[in-house]
Amino acid sequence: MTESYLIEVVRVSKSFPGVLALDEVDLRIRPGTVHALMGENGAGKSTLMKIIAGVLAPDTGAIRVNGSSVKFNSPRDALDAGIAMIHQELNLMPHMTVAENIWIRREPLRGMGLLIDHAEMVRMTQHLFRRLNVDLDPDEEVGNLTIANRQIVEIAKAVSFNSDVLIMDEPTSALTEREVMHLFSIIKDLKSHGVGVIYITHKMDEVFSISDEVSILRDGRFIANHVCADIDRDSLIREMVGRNIDELFPKETVSIGEEILLIENLSLRGVFTDVSLALRRGEILGLGGLLGAGRSSVAKALFGVTPATSGRIFVRGRQTIIDSPATALRCGMAFVTEDRKETGCFLSLSVLENMEIAVLHSRYTEWGLVTQNALTAECERLRQALRIKVTHLHECIQNLSGGNQQKVLLGRWLLTDPGILILDEPTRGIDVGAKAEIHRLISTLAAAGVGVILISSEMAELLGMCDRIIVMHEGRMTGTLERSEADQLNIMRLASGERRAN
Amino acid sequence: MDTSNQAASSAKVAGAKRRRKLPTEANIALILLGIALVFEIAGWIVRGESFLLNPDRLLIIILQVSIVGLIAIGVTQVIITGGIDLSSGSVLALSAMVAASLAQDSDNARALFPALTDLPMIVPLMAGLLVGALAGVINGSLIAMTGIPPFIATLGMMVSARGLARAYSNGQPISLLSEHYTWIGSGATPVIIFLGTALIFHVALRHTRYGKFTYAIGANLQAARLSGINVNRHIIVVYSIAGLLAGLAGVISSARVASGQAGMGVGYELDAISAVVIGGTSLTGGVGRIGGTVIGMIILGVMMSGFTFLGVDSVYQEIVKGAIIVTAVGTDMYRQRKRKKV
């Protein structure tokens, strides 16, 4: 072994029920470098990072830190070995101050070790912030900070452990450009101190501007490792996707019919303003924009989850007040939410019970009793049509992979035979195969005359699937793009607030 | 090779699942059997006679748990929605008082409402049910509309309903009830009502929209709402049913002892919750069955009767009962943790 690595991952595998998340993956991090880790959602990046950070244990394979083999039983072991992780979902306690969050369980003490030395803790925080060139009040409550500043606190906390390896999981997803620049200068400073940074991202620009090396995962397998200077964008994408974009988004051309949904000046105070759109039979209408642009809120208002405060909604030409999901359901709408676990699945119930719940409002009840045999048969038919991988319908939905859970939720709504289907990030966190199947399904539904509203943060998905794309920025529509004129650049421009000339 | 491996492992998972699927109630029944056998053996050793081979004793065991059992059927449904009902014991007392006051004989010189004596049995029965249901509507409305946690809302009802029961007759028991009325509590009638009610709600939970929505709300309230369920209305209905059943238990209690007393049913809510939890219903909601609750109730009955049979002091009975409840909840938590890990 001639070269020295901070951390080496050797042939690590990890499986969950039904999914092989990692298949003999290798990863080597040199000191003083930024190592980008790329791959589609579900490629296994997060699982790999959780293993390195001690959150999960690998099934097989080894992890070496500074050349010696280690076995982490908890995130604390990993921290002790010099590996700190900044989580995608922030792990700060909102009611505690910045300083308390950073030094939790490591508070400086006084009074024979019985009391926390608050002044010293603030001093240590200020010292840390000076080094990182951060301007935050150590006594501020974290709950009062912006998302970006919370992210900075997370990073400062990770740095405070004097770790050799820092893992950042999509750290810029909620940051503005200026904040990203700041983050990059922090990263460069860390690099110069010999720290190795593992940087997970979907953004090509970031890879080429900050990283030294890049490793690519696809479907849980290690695909390649490159020095960034030696590879170009296109080959990187090809390695990530492993197939052409056309295959991934099998959009059928369908004839678009009459208008089924019309929204006029829909507003929800403080969230979104004056959203107007029309949806026609067979059309797939995309809603693009950055996180927090208000797209999901529009969908929730449409479905009556948090009804709009002003504006009008017409369903099939008739003005309708949608005050609850029950009303929306009666209007022939269906809504697959972005958060499968929080608002979609009944995790303790079976696949069948998850699927049948929405259709029970209108069908499959006789003399007060559910006609279970007919309903089960219909669910079984749908299970086969959607190719949901499950041994039988009585399996608990918790044991299914994300992609299969999503198919069950789609099945729940397909049973109700909707005319308007609202999909909020329908393929987030889903493996590539299931993703293609869901895309094919959306196409088929559109071809059968369903009007689809598709919210997606994935540019390729919007471009590949939609007939038209409406882009939002900070609660307002900034433009509408026809399929022929839409491209990555156009969407990004509108999403960052640039208004369309016409 | 890769795929065959995966298929094999998923088949294994499915097998394990199916094996666990069947026994939710069978497991509890086995525990019941185990406890009964322990008493059987102890019976032969300590007293030289059989515990189980005594039809009278078996009937009494079920008779003893019938009243609390009715409450437990309602509480099971409340707990499946992710809630709790602490008011059942007090609601039982209030219903018993109201029902008893309308069931008095005309030859009673000190009837509470002298003008309302010798009424047909249906009047006090319906009055008792109505009082219970009303208390349930109040519980459910408070929880659904104001967001007051179920624990607090029903705790308030527990205290207030008990006070109302005392105020109703100035703390005096209401006695000398008509024979038509006392029939409801006589002989094996309570057992028949208990088991019949259990059967009705077993079917309601497994085979009707009402039941499926109840499970859905407990499993994920947000998702239930997004599936078009009117969650608030449903929660009110569930608590009303629990109140109605507590009211029914009140009618039977008063009929059984031919008197309504404000001190009736103290602590019944806890016995009911214990039986529900022992029966495998999860306190986090979304999981549970009436069958399990019935068996859980019988377990409590067998233990009470068994300890008495062996001559064990009631103080020790309570210690053991407490331990069993904690064990049941502990098992539930363990099961959930295991499920989450997968």
Which helices and strands appear, and what pairs or packs with what?
The complex is a heterodimer of chains A (502) and B (342).
Chain A: E1 7-16, E2 19-29, E3 34-38, H1 45-52, E4 60-65, E5 68-70, H2 75-80, E6 83-86, H3 98-102, E7 109-110, E8 115-116, H4 118-132, H5 147-160, E9 165-169, H6 177-192, E10 196-200, H7 204-210, E11 213-218, E12 221-227, H8 233-241, H9 245-248, E13 259-268, E14 272-280, E15 284-289, H10 295-302, E16 310-315, E17 318-320, H11 325-330, E18 333-336, H12 340-344, H13 351-356, E19 365-366, E20 369-370, H14 372-385, H15 402-414, E21 420-424, H16 432-447, E22 451-455, H17 459-465, E23 468-473, E24 476-482, H18 488-495
Parallel strand pairs in A: 3-10, 3-11, 6-9, 9-10, 15-22, 15-23, 18-21, 21-22
Antiparallel strand pairs in A: 1-2, 1-4, 4-5, 7-8, 11-12, 13-14, 13-16, 16-17, 19-20, 23-24
Chain B: H1 2-21, H2 23-46, H3 55-80, H4 88-101, H5 122-146, H6 150-168, E1 174-175, H7 179-182, H8 189-207, H9 209-219, H10 221-226, H11 231-257, E2 259-260, H12 268-278, H13 290-310, H14 314-341
Antiparallel strand pairs in B: 1-2
Helix pairs in contact in B: 2-13, 3-8, 3-11, 3-12, 3-13, 4-5, 4-6, 4-11, 5-6, 5-11, 8-9, 9-11, 12-13, 12-14
